[in-house]
Amino acid sequence: MNTSNLLQENLEEGRVSICKLVIINTSKEMMCFSDYTIPDHYLNFMHNSQVLKYFRMYVKDFNFLNYIQFKTTVYSVKKRPDFSSSGQWEVVTEYKGKKKVNVFDGVMACTGHHTNAHLSLESFPVE
Questions:
Q1: Dihedral through CA 14, CA 111, CA 42, CA 19, nearest 10?
Q2: How far, in Å, CA of 9 to CA of 5, rounded?
Q3: How far, in Å, are 31, 98, 105, 110 from residue 91 at the CA level?
Q4: What is the biggest distance separating any 2 CA atoms in the chain, rounded to whole angstroms?
Q5: Can you say whether the dihedral through the CA atoms of 98, 104, 109, 111 is positive or negative?
Q6: Where do the H-state alpha helices sit in 24-89?
Q7: Cβ proximity of 39 and 53 under 8 Å
Q8: How far is Cα 48 from Cα 123, in angstroms, rounded to an integer?
Q9: 73-127: pLDDT as tens digits
């Protein structure tokens, strides 16, 4: 078997890449969502393809794709004037050339650890 192809990564600028042989180093019991267990037939320390399948099942079963918008630029995230009573945030985004303002009950800044973050910690001032 030629293993050189298994070890190559197809790198794309700005995208996460993972070696085809990677096995997660956390047990499935420790990494699963509390409301969605990992299938019993999955190995305890899963191959990365099983982790991806698990995440896709979770998104599909909870219908999260209706709430996710990919390829969207976030311009600002600010507390609303009534934040102390509402806890809401105003988020300005751009998708396909159109800017939009949305109000959300919560915001998460997720840059990941497998690629370079787009913003530094200084981009998130503490008020």
A1: 30
A2: 8
A3: 30, 14, 11, 15
A4: 63
A5: negative
A6: 28-31, 48-61, 83-86
A7: no
A8: 32
A9: 899 999 999 999 999 999 999 999 999 999 999 998 776 655 555 566 666 666 5
Cα separation, 24 vs 43, in Å, equals 10
**Is-above-0.70 flag for pTM?**
no
CB 17 within 8 A of CB 112: no
Closest CA to 18 of 51, 48, 43: 48
Tokens for 7?
A: 């070890």
Q: What is the layout of strands, in order, in the sheet containing 98-104? A: 73-79, 89-95, 98-104
